[in-house]
């Protein structure tokens, strides 16, 4: 079946995707959207975009599948060494000291847009190595890609995917099988994977750290601002926000403060 997408079809579908997820399609990435739609139309056995539009506005499940299919899920273990070092050598020690003073012993983290799980598992391994005795960490990891979440939940990765895991962590936190590497239970237990669309409020409160790296780039400015301000509401009043190294809050209406360390830059929410 030959399928062409008119300008008005493109406008209609991209507007709906934007309203549902914040993901913004420009003329440049129109071919990606066309290719995903071609696949979906074939599977749904439909001929026209108009028919498909009717389907996604009627059936929530198909809308979810379309959103999943247009996401970019590229990720890897210990992505961005500078961020991982700032987390290990600056943020964790600072938060531990702060919590001790308050007689608290838990660090709460959200990996928002966690894709197939490499980011939250990397954070959990660093926490397992560095948290002092008596301290615990809980990580909520969320995404709107159900396919990615399924991989994340298994915690199983083929050999090609484990590049980046430091040598000392590999035998300690993975079990080698004939097909690949399985994350050990003690690390899995630290993470709760959940479906969540960043377009909406998560209901999470009092978090110490939000990692949302390489997600905002898919949104336009208005959607980015909405997401970032919802992070503000989810964080406690002594907290950190880490976004991707090519992302910035510059020019955005937000109360987050830019913070520079020897390792990396990120944002903070601290009392004045
Ligand atoms: C490139 S991956 C980044 C993964 C990881 N944070 C990293 O930096 O390696 C972007 C992820 O954001 C997710 N995403 C995009 N829009 C989203 C939305 N509205 N709500 C939740 N997740 C979203 C995608 O499904 C994808 O898994």
Outline the structure in words:
The chain has 272 residues and is an alpha/beta fold. Helix content is 43%, strand content 19%. The chain contains 10 helices and 10 strands. The protein has helices at residues 7-21, 30-44, 49-58, 60-70, 81-101, 118-130, 146-154, 170-173, 185-188, 221-234, and strands at 106-112, 136-143, 156-157, 174-176, 181-183, 191-195, 207-212, 235-243, 257-260, 265-269. Strands 6-2-1-7-8-10-9 form a 7-stranded mixed beta sheet. A hairpin with a 4-residue loop joins strand 9 (257-260) and strand 10. Helix 3 crosses helix 4 (60-70) and helix 5 crosses helix 6. The longest helix has 21 residues, at 81-101. The mean pLDDT is 96. S-adenosylmethionine binds at residues 21-23, 71-75, 79, 113-115, 119, 143-145, 148, 197-199, 213-215, 218.
Instruction: Name the average pLDDT.
Output: 96
Helix run count: 10
The main sheet comes to:
7 strands, mixed
In terms of quaternary structure, the protein is single chain
N- to C-terminal separation?
A: 61 Å
> Which ligands are bound?
S-adenosylmethionine
Q: How many individual β-strands? A: 10
Q: In what order do the strands lie side by side in the largest sheet? A: 6-2-1-7-8-10-9
Calculate Rg over CA atoms: 20 Å
Low-confidence stretches: none
Write the element-wise H/E pattern from the N-terminal end onward.
HHHHHEHEHEHEEHEEHEEE
Q: Structural class, from helix and strand content?
A: alpha/beta
Content of β-strand: 15-25%
Shape: globular
As a percent range, the share of helical residues equals 40-55%
